[in-house]
Specification:
It is globular, with a radius of gyration of 19 Å. It has 313 residues and is of the alpha/beta class. It is 40% helix and 12% strand. Bound molecules: zinc ion (2 copies). One zinc ion binds next to loops.
C-alpha cells in the first residue's frame, strides 16, 4: 500500500501544465508543441482528443473520407483550433475530382490519405496529382508493395521505378510520401523483399535522393514504416533528419486509444508487431527527440507543417 506521504510526493512531482489559450505557443512535455500530420479521424470528438492529450500532441490533421461536415463541426466545437483536415475519395470513381474540389472549398487543406489499389503513375492518381496542383493543396500518398497479410494487395505501386517521373511531370503539385515503400527505399539495397526491412541503411536510397532533388516532395514520418526506417541506423537517421529538416513532417497514424499504447496502435497490420502495445506518436517523437537538435525537432514536429498548410502558428 502506498503511504499518504509517498502519494503526496507523487502528486506534487507530477507536471501541471497551465491551460492553453489557443493562441500563444502552448507548453508541452516534448519541449515544444507538436502537430500530428497523420491522424485518422475518429467518430467521437472525445476519442480524437484522448489521443492528442495522452500523447502530448497540441494539434492534428484529421484524415477523412467522404462527407464529414457534421463530425468536423462537433470536433471543432469540442476543441477549437486544434484540428485541420484532409479529405480522400475513391480515385477509381469518376466523381472523385468533384468530391475533393468540394472538400477543399469547404476547408480541407489537402488530399489524403490516398490509399487505393492503383499504380502510382496510373491515370487515376494522375488526375488527383493534377487537381491538387490546380487547387494548391498537398496530396498525401500511401505507397506499399508488400502485403501485411494474405491477399491485402498493394497500394500506389511503382514508387521506386516511376515516382521520379511524376515529380517531374507535376512540378506545381506538393507531394507528401508515406508508408512502407516510401520509407524502405531510404536504403539503396531495397528491392521489395519485406514490408519493413531491418539492418543498417545503405546510403544513396531513392527516397533520400528524391527528397534532396525535388522541392515538391515531402516525407510523412508516421506509422511503423517511418518509425522502422528511423530505428535502423542511428548515424544515418541523424544525418537524414538534418539534411531534410525542411521536408519532413511528424505524423503518427496511431490507432491507440489513449496516447499511451492502449488498444491497437497499428490496426490491420500484423507485420507491425514491433509497435504492439505502444503509442506510435510517443515512439516516433522519442526517436526524433534523441536524433535531432531542438531546432530541427521543432521544424519537423511543428514549423514545417504550418508553412506547408499555411496555418498561422
Ligand atoms: Zn497509410
Ligand atoms: Zn497512440
Amino acid at each position: 500500500m502506498i503511504s499518504r506521504r509517498a502519494f503526496l510526493e507523487t502528486v506534487s512531482a507530477a507536471v501541471v501544465l497551465p491551460a492553453w489559450d489557443g493562441q500563444s505557443t502552448p507548453p508541452n512535455e516534448w519541449g515544444s508543441p507538436v502537430f500530428d500530420l497523420h491522424f485518422h479521424m475518429r467518430p467521437q470528438p472525445a476519442a480524437n482528443l484522448a489521443h492528442l492529450d495522452g500523447a502530448g500532441v497540441t494539434k492534428a490533421n484529421l484524415l477523412t473520407r467522404g462527407v464529414v461536415t457534421e463530425q468536423l463541426a462537433a470536433i471543432e466545437a469540442a476543441a477549437p483550433k486544434r484540428f485541420t483536415w484532409f479529405n480522400s475519395a475513391d480515385v477509381t470513381k469518376p466523381e472523385a475530382e468533384q468530391i475533393l474540389t468540394a472538400a477543399v472549398k469547404a476547408g480541407a487543406q489537402g488530399f489524403g490519405e490516398m490509399k487505393f489499389h492503383v499504380a502510382a503513375d496510373g491515370p487515376e492518381l494522375r488526375r488527383m496529382y493534377a487537381l491538387a496542383g490546380e487547387l494548391k493543396v498537398p496530396i498525401l500518398v500511401h505507397f506499399q508493395e508488400v502485403d501485411h497479410f494474405e491477399n491485402e494487395g498493394t497500394w500506389s505501386t511503382g514508387f521506386a521505378k516511376t515516382f521520379e517521373s511524376i515529380l517531374k511531370a507535376y512540378p506545381q503539385t506538393t507531394f507528401i510520401g508515406h508508408a512502407d515503400a516510401f520509407w524502405a527505399n531510404v536504403s539503396a539495397d531495397y528491392h521489395n523483399e519485406a514490408a519493413y526491412p531491418s539492418g543498417p541503411i545503405v546510403r544513396g536510397g531513392i527516397t533520400d535522393k528524391l527528397l534532396g532533388d525535388y522541392a515538391n516532395l515531402h516525407g510523412d514520418l508516421s506509422a511503423n514504416s517511418a518509425n522502422n526506417a528511423l530505428s535502423r541506423d542511428a548515424e544515418f537517421t541523424k544525418d537524414f533528419l538534418a539534411r531534410h529538416h525542411t521536408k519532413l513532417l511528424f505524423g503518427s497514424d496511431c490507432g491507440c486509444t489513449d496516447g499511451h499504447g492502449a488498444g491497437i496502435s497499428q490496426g490491420g497490420n500484423p507485420a507491425a508487431a514491433r509497435l504492439a502495445g505502444k503509442c506510435v506518436a510517443r515512439e516516433t517523437l522519442g526517436l526524433l527527440k534523441r536524433s535531432a537538435s531542438p531546432a530541427i525537432f521543432q521544424k519537423i514536429t511543428w514549423g514545417n507543417v504550418h508553412k506547408l498548410l499555411r496555418i498561422p502558428d
